[in-house]
């Protein structure tokens, strides 16, 4: 018999005896261990078979998906049941058994009533979440790798998910498997003291999908830490963990998918917080395991791969006079015979002019408006404009050129993405006229809810995003294994 084994056993017995003597130890010991700790996972983004089966559905390619998750250094996969009616059977018969053999934990992800239709829902039990709780719990007893389940957009469906209904769900599942966890997915503005007091005693944790709320976007990251800290502090009242979901592919109603830099920053913050014990886990949102599946990833430039984007998110209040734009000091030839500018513009809103008077696209020279048009008046697609600037530029050697979006009247929910591109100048010089880089132009905004930015199309965006997550998760995996090795060494003799 090895000496270190005896020492380890004695130490364990002593720890148990000491713990039992502490106040409140009985309740703590009877509580099932948390399943929400050190989670580095991916939500959805699975690889599907290229050809539909005899049932007409493209089934989940289990081996290909698990291979890519292994490359990503994931320890958890959040399996979405929504894309095909065969998803549940694919999970039960193929994916879950294979994941368990590889040591991969699995959570199930269901969609709420607001995302269900006859064509697409979480089949087979659809919006019967009591039945889902029962079936998932039973499956988790057969396959212990199934650790929990979540529901999307929980906060948009509170008319069904009342505290009493959630209590019934939890009673149903935990009567079968007390260790199975349930985590609703919500957004930052939902996590109020009132919400936490109503649901904190019932749930096992929360998934926070970060999108810079209330300014729905995947461009800014400066509010991430504050939102995580505030949400975690509220949940701490009930000793429930928070899990971050960071966007690694397109969020609906936003101008372009998250850049690799955005993915790197949000993934690094999530990993840092998990390592520090501030989060129970971090999950990537639909990171495409197959780069060809990078949905809603298009080149929105008129020419080349870059454009100026002036974006007002949905449900963002603005005030009359608010602006967002990009400016550059241009060099003027004082001996030129003429001064003209030609450019392309576009926007995502069109109403035939019926809702005109709220938002204007403008061009300014030295603060003077020389051209403008209403976003509601232009037909979809890029339009070409030529403006004579002789009056504004003659006799000058430099001038400030500004493309901007003006809120003529305040709005409460009028999302729009305005584009400018392909500038051609006569009589003066514009640097970076196609916004192909982030150089030479100065972005400005008078309202935090108006986002000026440069949209530069990356054909391999999904590949770069994958590499960023792989690097961060890989470093955490190496650090975790190193710490475990060091800890075991302390007792190794």
UniProtKB/TrEMBL annotation:
SUPFAM superfamilies, alphabetized: (Trans)glycosidases
Cleaved signal peptide residues: 1-27
Keywords in alphabetical order: Signal
Domain of life assignment: Bacteria
Protein's name in the database: Uncharacterized protein
């Amino acid at each position: 018999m090895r000496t270190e084994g005896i020492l380890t056993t004695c130490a364990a017995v002593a720890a148990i005896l000491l713990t039992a003597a502490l106040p409140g130890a009985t309740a703590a010991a009877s509580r099932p261990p948390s399943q929400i700790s050190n989670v580095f996972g991916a939500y959805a983004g699975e690889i599907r078979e290229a050809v539909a089966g005899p049932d007409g559905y493209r089934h989940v390619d289990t081996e290909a998906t698990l291979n890519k998750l292994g490359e990503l250094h994931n320890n958890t996969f959040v399996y979405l049941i929504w894309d095909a009616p065969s998803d549940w059977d694919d999970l039960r018969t193929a994916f879950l058994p294979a994941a368990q053999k590889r040591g991969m934990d699995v959570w199930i992800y269901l969609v709420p009533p607001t995302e269900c239709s006859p064509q697409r829902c979480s089949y087979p039990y659809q919006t019967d979440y009591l039945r889902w709780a029962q079936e998932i719990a039973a499956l988790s007893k057969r396959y212990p790798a199934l650790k929990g389940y979540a529901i999307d957009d929980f906060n948009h469906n509170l008319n069904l998910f009342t505290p009493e209904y959630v209590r019934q769900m939890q009673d149903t599942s935990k009567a079968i498997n007390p260790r199975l966890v349930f985590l609703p997915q919500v957004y930052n503005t939902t996590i109020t003291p009132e919400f936490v007091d109503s649901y904190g005693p019932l749930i096992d944790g929360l998934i926070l999908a970060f999108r810079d709320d209330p300014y729905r976007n995947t461009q800014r990251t400066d509010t991430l830490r504050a939102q995580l800290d505030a949400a975690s502090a509220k949940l701490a009242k009930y000793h429930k963990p928070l899990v971050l979901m960071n966007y690694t592919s397109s969020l609906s109603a936003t101008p372009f998918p998250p850049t690799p830099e955005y993915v790197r920053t949000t993934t690094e913050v999530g990993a840092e917080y998990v390592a520090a014990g501030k989060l129970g886990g971090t999950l990537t949102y639909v990171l495409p395991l197959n780069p060809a599946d990078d949905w809603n990833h298009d080149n929105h430039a008129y020419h080349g791969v870059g454009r100026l984007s002036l974006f007002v998110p949905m449900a963002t209040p603005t005030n009359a006079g608010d602006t967002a734009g990009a400016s550059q000091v241009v060099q003027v030839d004082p001996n030129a015979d003429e001064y003209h500018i030609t450019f392309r513009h576009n926007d995502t809103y069109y109403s035939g002019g019926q809702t005109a008077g709220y938002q204007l696209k403008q061009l300014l020279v030295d603060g003077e408006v020389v051209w403008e048009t209403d976003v509601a008046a232009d037909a979809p697609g890029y339009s070409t404009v030529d403006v004579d600037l002789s009056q504004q530029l003659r006799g000058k050697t430099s001038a400030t050129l500004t493309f901007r979006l003006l809120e003529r009247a305040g709005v409460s929910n009028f999302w729009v993405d305005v584009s400018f591109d392909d500038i051609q100048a006569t009589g003066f010089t514009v640097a970076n006229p196609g916004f192909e880089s982030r150089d030479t132009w100065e972005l400005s905004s008078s309202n935090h809810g108006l986002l000026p930015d440069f949209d530069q199309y990356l054909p391999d965006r999904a590949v770069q995003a994958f590499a960023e997550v792989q690097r961060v998760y890989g470093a955490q995996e190496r650090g975790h294994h190193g710490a475990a090795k060091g800890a075991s060494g302390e007792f190794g003799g």
